[in-house]
Known about the structure:
By secondary structure, the protein is of the alpha+beta class. 55% of the residues lie in helices and 14% in strands. The protein has 7 helices and 5 strands, in the order ααββααβαβαβα. It has helices at residues 7-60, 62-66, 81-84, 94-114, 139-156, 181-187, 200-203, and strands spanning 71-73, 76-80, 116-123, 164-168, 189-196. The chain has a 5-stranded mixed beta sheet. A hairpin with a 2-residue loop joins β1 and β2. α4 (94-114) packs across α5. It is elongated and about 100 Å long. 22% of the residues are buried.
Amino acid sequence: MEPTVPVWAVFGDLMSGLLGAFVLILVCVLGMQIDLASQLEAEVKQRQEAAQRLQTLEQALAGPLAAGRVTLTNGRIGISGSVLFAFNSAELQPEGRQLLRSLTAPLAAYLRARDEILMVSGFTDDRQMRDGARRFADNWELSAQRSLTVTRALIEEGLPSSSVFAAAFGSEQAVASNADADGRSKNRRVEMSPTPRPSNAQARPRG
Length: 207
């Protein structure tokens, strides 16, 4: 008859296997907790930086914000299109020029301190161009020309040309319904958004 394996040896092997599995599970759990803690820490830091950025921007624009001449929503500076331009026009009105003049110095200081760049975006309502506004092919062209007009005005008032660029959205990204005059008026706007400046590595062409 073959000798039998002692029970204590089998039990010992079983306990060793269970202990190894427990240690492995423990290591995995600890690793997951460390990853979650790192992600949470990064998210908290990102939110704190966003809150600090918004607070700094609010302080820089305290005067125009208090006067109700601009709005600030999620870091986007909004200006009603009627303040800057006549209906279906891309020619800057005197009131609009004065407002941009008052914004240039605080914006330049903010961008310089944070090494950011300003995106000037033009938006329109969804109505088609009328006969009197046929110098613009469509709302895309009107919004592009308006954002360029504001961009050039900011540069003329002293904002470095390397710190600002223009973008056009036409009737896209409406903030109100285009079904009534009040909603369309809100959609005809210009927004200015400070954004991170592209790094040299990102800006360098490839090839």
